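The data are set out underneath:

___
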Amino acid sequence: MSVLDNWDQWKNFLGDRLHQGQSQGLEQSAISNLAYEIGDYLATQVDPKNEQERVLSDLWSVASEEERHAIASVMVKLVENNGTSK
């Protein structure tokens, strides 16, 4: 089963990656840029596996570049308290 199949597992996976980046000294702007790149990749290359991912994909598809950066930043905030290394 992929982490993309379950929303809570996906958030925990992202939370773990976020905490790893922060512990390695990545700046917030770098994290936000990575989140944008991941969001863009997922929106264009990966079929949504659950309702939450479908909503994000639909929002991404109609958003401007600036709005996509905002969505990515909000996703970073959403997963800050997720993961095994909170």
